[in-house]
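seq/struct pair 1
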Amino acid sequence: MSNNWVVENLENALETWNSKLSEIWRLLSESPTEFKGGGIWNVMVNINDALKAVGYALLVLFFLMGIMRQFNSFQEIKRPEQALKLFIRFVLAKAAVTWGLDLMMAMFTIVQGVISKIMAASGLSGNGATYLPQSMIQTIEDCGFWESIPLWAVTLIGSLLVWVLSFVMILTVYGRFFKLYIYAAIAPVPLSAFAGEETSHIGKAFIKSFAAVCLEGAVIVLGCIIYSLFAASPPSVAAGASAITQVWTYVGELLFNMLVLVGTIKLSDRVVKDMMGL
């Protein structure tokens, strides 16, 4: 670590960024059942079990509403093909409420397999760290006191933005876990809508939305991989330029790459929903 304040400030900011990037890489390969020791997941499972009673009640309600809207008389329901169709719909809806969480976790496991394949195919280990080049350190350390004053302003603003982007990025990834937990907890209620033909779109939308949340991880890991490849070659800086120009160019290009990654992570849910037609 350099004794120069400007260099030290930049290196501290980059260290924070690198630590958050490594944490994101770890979180993307972690299941909500293991996150924070699994304590949160156990509470969500308990809530899911408690809401199954509500789901069963709504299931019957949606089923009866569907029958009343679809058929004009009881004689139509007595037809074997209609009775069988209604019986199958009711059984499948009840299965969705009863084992919906298991089916959702099976979907999550499939998507996690896709994410693992992407990570393995990239050949990266999540260590696409960004470091201050030695040439930039030397340029900053060679500056006198008066030359360092504008550098202080540049690095102070740049470091502040790096810290902000780091926490925005990690909070977005944590937000994905919160969404997974919420979907797991309330699943019996929207899944009960499968009992009615006219309300089944609610259950379908819920499943598609949950799949989109799962796939957010794939978009995020792709963004991290692309950023890591960019970070492998540091921003190009003209050697003959003044120190303030070199630092400003380096910090500006660095922040641009970071903004692209943070933007990709922030918009991952929108990207996936667009792909799925939501």
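seq/struct pair 2
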Amino acid sequence: MIQSERLLLRPMQSQDAQTLFGYRSDPRVAEYQGWLPGDLGAAQAFCLAQSKQAPNQPDTWMQLSLCLHEGAMIGDLGLHFLEDGHQVEFGISLAPAHQGQGYANEAMLAVFDWLFSTLGKHRIFCSVDPRNLPSMAMAKALGMRQEAHFVKSLFFKGAWVDDVVFGLLAQEWRLPKAQGGQTG
């Protein structure tokens, strides 16, 4: 588990399926998502499979449930542990009611600290559709550097779209003291 001031990031559990299905099916969340649960059964199968996924396994995705300290799930965070064992790709989704409140940045700061300080990762990166302005702003606010802007390089939902890659190296990472993330 990873904790921050307001959040707990924990392994996904079977009982997260209804909440996951609810916000991942919302068109405002689904617009830039690669995986969408087709129905509640698909969300249940996904949550069950993820509940068994161990962290830091090369060439795997691990989905964490993003929860308020009182227990309410407000989103999820995916971590792709690359085959090389030194790099991690991430993606994050929040229910619309919890967007714009700093939860994504807070969660990512705590996760960055865990990945760099505890797991000793070399590089963390994300791939963002440049039309997704909140995600672009989040990557910049987290101190990530724009490494690339690939033009119409990704065939996504029936159209060719741009792909912007942001990255951060361990040597560049400094946990902002005001955010105070911790793991446990």
